[in-house]
Amino acid sequence: MAEYRLGDAEMQFAEIIWEREPISSGELVKLCADKLNWKKSTTHTVLRRICEKGLFQNQNGLVQSLVSKEDFFAGQSEKFVEETFDGSLPRFLAAFTSRKKISEKEIKEIQKIIQENQKK
Predict the structure, then answer these.
(1) How far is CA 58 from CA 8, 49, 52, 62, 74, in A?
(2) Could you report the per-residue pLDDT of 66-95, keeping only the tens digit for each?
(3) Fold of 8-69
């Protein structure tokens, strides 16, 4: 998966698209004016930049994702674990659970994920 880095404003913009896609660029301009207080030119500039990164496309005034929100965040999570814990998921989980206790429900969900991945 390609590496995507988004600033805070780009992340807010991406969330707007993911929540409403496919969305017309005209509607996107209106939403960004309302939610982000952006001018039309700002919206089009950020849209162009984010499309150049390969996350979204704008074809004939219709904006939609090329990378789903779930895939984007999965990639961000992988990158975080790789950069911070040398790719070690056990080290990440140990650090995470040393400060935040996980519930029985979360433990069962994690066990289910592990079991499903053992079968692959």
Answers:
(1) 21, 11, 10, 5, 23
(2) 999 999 999 999 999 999 999 999 999 999
(3) Arc Repressor Mutant, subunit A (1.10.10)
